[in-house]
Design brief:
This protein has 395 residues and is an alpha/beta fold. The protein has one domain (45-374, 383-394): TIM Barrel, CATH 3.20.20. It contains 13 helices and twelve strands. It has helices at 15-18, 49-59, 73-82, 89-100, 116-119, 129-135, 166-175, 195-214, 233-253, 280-294, 311-321, 336-346, 353-371; strands at residues 6-8, 31-33, 65-69, 109-114, 139-143, 148-150, 158-160, 180-187, 218-225, 262-263, 301-304, 329-334. The strands form three sheets. Strands 3-4-5-8-9-10-11-12 form an eight-stranded parallel beta barrel, surrounded by eight helices. The chain has a two-stranded antiparallel ribbon with strand order 1-2. Strand 8 (180-187), helix 8 and strand 9 form a beta-alpha-beta unit. Bound molecules: 1,3-dihydroxyacetonephosphate. Residues 68, 70, 113, 182, 184, 222, 305-307, 334-337, 395 line the site of 1,3-dihydroxyacetonephosphate. The site of 1,3-dihydroxyacetonephosphate has 14 residues, from strand 8 and helix 12.
């Protein structure tokens, strides 16, 4: 029978026991809170709490959002192929160098999500990418999930791998300079979603969030509701409500500190193949209604994914959501909707680097204005208006 007292943890392994050969920051306090119940002893680790809250609030700062540049090597290869480049480490390094060294990027971007290769990578002129980001006042983050695989027993749905060894990987990423993490799992509307797939997605996100916080990383919680499908916006709204209810249920069960997380939802839109399209005002109405119903105000930031929308569409929708004050910072964590024009402008040619960097800055600035509710949509290029939806997109 557990007693109602604060006890020193004896059942939780010390970090040094599971991370071999690393000098790790040790928790300043390690407390286990035990409630008087025969069945539930709730453990809450307080070691990184203050730092997590600070990191989350730094990322969720006015007029700033996240540059998602955590494409896996396979996905990065597809991007490079679209401009006729081979998927070599040197080409990935050249592209990522271009992205992180855009002059003034930190005015609009507060965090950058990296793939593991990039966290340990240097720029083409030998500076650590993590250091370049810090000099730009951008917090380095890391994708910690290991991708999607088929979910046995489901309706052809998937689940996200990566929990095995996550604690030691997260501790090592912290050592390398990462301060936040991302885990993307997906929910498919055309395939159901089945109750099993939603529960698995929510539980996995909650375990990841608890483990990340235990190792000093602010978890970005991302259950992406895919754009695929012919369904209308009402159906997306219904599914999103069910998904977020379950996610917060399990986050609470796993003692996740809400003040030290960030969310990365999909906007509530019609399916990509639905004939009835929605205006930015309609997307904002549905999405804000969803957030108000499901997201506690303790959460500092909502950092949307772009999911295949065009660059301009993603910016207009974000702007529409910031026309009046929200309880949370409502911002962006886009990959495609920040990088598309930049990548095309670059085309792999050294002489285009400056123009490509300018293209990224234009998008970052537009989304910064949208975060502040001040984007007008004027002067956008035709390229920026092109949708980027791909069926069954993997990251
Ligand atoms: P998109 O903005 O391209 O949908 O990227 C989603 C994502 O999870 C990147 O980290």
């Amino acid at each position: 029978m557990a007693s109602a007292s604060l006890l020193k943890s004896s059942t939780i392994l010390d970090k040094s026991e599971w991370v071999k050969g690393q000098t790790l920051r040790q928790p300043s306090v390690s407390v286990v809170r035990c409630y008087p119940s025969a069945t539930s002893a709730i453990n809450i680790r307080a070691s990184y709490a203050d730092e997590l809250v600070k990191t989350a609030n730094t990322i969720a700062s006015p007029g700033r959002g996240i540059l998602a540049m955590d494409e896996s090597n396979a996905t990065c290869g597809k991007r490079l192929a679209s401009i006729g480049l081979e998927n070599t480490e040197a080409n990935r390094q050249a592209y990522r160098t271009l992205l992180v060294s855009v002059p003034g990027l930190g005015n609009y971007v507060s965090g950058a999500i990296l793939f593991e290769e990039t966290l340990y990578q240097s720029t083409v002129d030998g500076k650590k990418i993590v250091d370049v980001l810090k000099e730009q006042n951008i917090v380095p983050g890391i994708k910690t999930d290991k991708g999607l695989v088929p979910l046995a027993g489901s309706n052809d749905e998937s689940w996200c791998q990566g929990l095995d060894g996550l604690a030691s990987r997260s501790a090592a990423y912290y050592q390398q300079g990462a301060r936040f993490a991302k885990w993307r799992t997906v929910v498919s509307i055309p395939n159901g979603p089945s109750a099993l797939a939603v529960k698995e997605a929510a539980w996995g996100l909650a375990r990841y969030a608890a483990i990340s916080q235990d190792n000093g990383l602010v978890p970005i919680v991302e259950p992406e509701i895919m754009l695929d499908g012919e369904h209308g916006i009402e159906r997306t709204f219904e599914v999103a409500q069910a998904v977020w209810a379950e996610v917060f249920f399990y986050l609470a069960q796993n003692n996740v500190l809400y003040e030290g997380i960030l969310l990365k939802p999909s906007m509530v839109t019609p399916g990509a193949e639905c004939k009835e399209r929605a205006t930015p005002e309609q997307v904002a109405d549905y999405t804000l209604k969803l957030l108000h119903r499901r997201i506690p105000p303790a959460v500092p930031g909502i950092m949307f994914l772009s999911g295949g929308q065009s660059e301009v569409e993603a910016t207009l929708n974000l702007n529409a959501m910031n026309q009046s004050p929200n309880p949370w910072h409502v911002s962006f964590s886009y990959a495609r909707a920040l990088q598309n024009t930049c990548l095309k402008t670059w085309g792999g040619r050294p002489e285009n680097v400056a123009a490509a960097q300018e293209a990224l800055l234009v998008r970052a600035k537009a989304n910064s204005l949208a975060q502040l509710g001040k984007y007008t949509g004027e002067g956008e290029s035709e390229e920026a208006k092109k949708g980027m939806f791909v069926k069954g997109y993997v990251y």
